[in-house]
């Protein structure tokens, strides 16, 4: 009886102790925590101080340390058991950043002896702290005292292999996370259950022999070796890990066929990730032997063929199957219908075909489905009639042929989607209406219905039903009506409704409706009216694009004053006016400013304070004044993308002493003076045409090795073409038309092996055409990216969606004379256009036969020179030629009959030469040319000329009668009336022209250029006529 009473008392005491626990932390551990805080404060990298650091950790005995942040104690003993010091300085990392690259500038070393007080510590998290290792001689042996530590997280630091010996002292360690470090060497402990070595410096040099230590890890259940450099030889050595449940080998250098014998027999394996390698061949049938497998990830390899039914279909427990971005083809095996536990199915990026609707209908546990980028016949949403768990559906079609039907008037879905992407498909082909089942969706966070040819009123209700919508894009459809969002959308940070048919004005409170939006794109619609001033309330707006609409008025000052985080602002192709750039911007983060094709006036302020500005496009406005020097010389623009100020009224000289842009366009202004002697390591596109520059071409211009386009046509440049032009060896387009250049054509032009367009017309060049033009590469098919994209805006990822804030592109445009007209060539067409124009010069000698080797050329113009000799037969080799003009020269001999082989020729002229004989046969394209192509050649005969080739003697010209008829019956009154009315008419016309030119300066420029062109044309005509006369007299 007594013993029973004692036992009861003891058990009661134990229960009370457990219920009451230990109150108050131990002083030793309290002091240890404060020392750890002091260590972190002392080691805080510069510019990362966040005061106060660990504010709850205070040296106050009244403060219970077990209640401090990041600290967990055992409720019974009061000892610290869990210590989380993850990202102690709260660094922020965007998804495109490399944390390890950032950490290299923040690295520090930790005194591990600080943890000797925590003898009951079970879990320690030191991740994301840029720790480079332990401080030497500071007690790494202290780790022996942490004999109860089971979980250690060191990921995202800079530990190297020197840490391995100290980790072996942690005898109780079961879970070790060393991912994203720089660790090398063998594995540190034998009793581990979880080992994470992701993203280290482990490479294929660690072969099977190096992994003999794996056999000691009998208890290992989770192994992550992803994002290293292992080869496929490691796979077989993993067979000794009999307890393994999760194996991740993704993002390594494994390649070749994945044979059956390579797969270890791991009966307990539940997760296998071998994605993002270079495996080829088929999925091995033996994979079906992994009977416990729940997750299989083989995405982003080079696997091909059809799916083996005998392999995958045996995985009855499979819950996740990722086969994305391989080269699988054919139809899916019907036995996949039996994988009823499947929750994730990703088949995107393959060549699967057939109808998948019936298969999906049977997999009712699906949560995540991605069928994008295949050639399925289509898909019906009726397949999801019994799916209550579906959260994610993505179907991005390769073309608009895949039909997706969602319409069923009686269907109310059982699921609530969070993620819906249907893009570039034929969605609801018969009605082109937005899916009606969306009326029943209220949990959407990501929505993409772009490029589906949807029409009807804009679905404003969609945003009212889904108030937690974060990312939405309805771009490239035909939605119409007003864009009036129903209420405050506090979670929407990305919205793109560009390329629709929206009209009307923006709601006045749009800035209050979208207070937390980062990116708003409304471009390419029919919106009008002024911009609401409430946009200034969108304080975290980073990208705003309303280009290609009908907005008018001044840009509200609130936008510039309130949107302090603005990175990209696109207002181009509207009817805005005012002095936008004449005042300072508060948007100091601004990187891209596009305001082209508006009616902005005034000057560009010297106080435009955005030091990050990388792209400024203010072209096609009415701006004036001088170009401010900050545009060129600020060091913050060293990585700038471009400055475009063409078609304005800027005057003065170019202030730039150094150019580090990729794109500079100052064309069609009133700039004058000499061209600067620039040097640049990045300039690719230079447009200075149609200004008033004079002097010679600076040699420094032609030493820019990255230069692709040089257009300085339509100026008053003189002197010769510098021979150093060969240094611009990447040059694709050279336009020097309409200057006053003289001298010979330098043979160094032939060394430009990438050149495709040369225009030297309307100058005073003399001498012969270089024979080396045979090396002119006119059939260059390599694209040099004439469509230049600006991609400065941030990139974010929402549930796997890559959100790229690229609001536009710079389309390169050049003018080139072909087919008798000055044509404009833009964008990617320049990759296919090629031509040579040497017209309107003083070139002499014969046409080189080597020009016949320019087989990809589309336009050749040698007219209005003094060329002699015959037309080379080799020109018939120019099979792509569309325009050939040899007129107004002194060519003689016959026209080669072989030219009729030029089947693409649309323009042909040999007029005003000394050619003789029969015209080419009226075949192919030559059957379309009339007599004007041959006129001015007295000795040519045959169709389409009236002169018959059988005539042996020229018929004398018929005398023409001329009579001077004088009418003496005019009366003096009639004469006075006629001359008076004629004089008044002339005066009125003259005053009208002067008035128009005074009002519109742009027409003034046109008039001046027209007069200048007429003077040059008259000069060339007289000079060439006199030259021909002297040649004939002396010959």
Automatic annotation (TrEMBL):
The chain crosses the membrane at residues 976-999. It comes from Quercus suber (Cork oak). Keywords: Cell membrane, Glycoprotein, Leucine-rich repeat, Membrane, Receptor, Repeat, Signal, Transmembrane, Transmembrane helix. It is a single-pass type I membrane protein. Coiled coil: none annotated. The lineage of its organism: Eukaryota, Viridiplantae, Streptophyta, Embryophyta, Tracheophyta. PROSITE patterns: LRR. Pfam families: LRR_1 (PF00560), LRR_6 (PF13516), LRR_8 (PF13855), LRRNT_2 (PF08263). This is Receptor-like protein 13. Belongs to the RLP family. Residues 1-24 form the signal peptide. Residues 28-74 form the Leucine-rich repeat-containing N-terminal plant-type domain. GO terms for cellular component: plasma membrane. It is found in: Cell membrane. InterPro entries: Leu-rich_rpt, Leu-rich_rpt_typical-subtyp, LRR_dom_sf, LRR_N_plant-typ, RLP_Defense_Trigger.
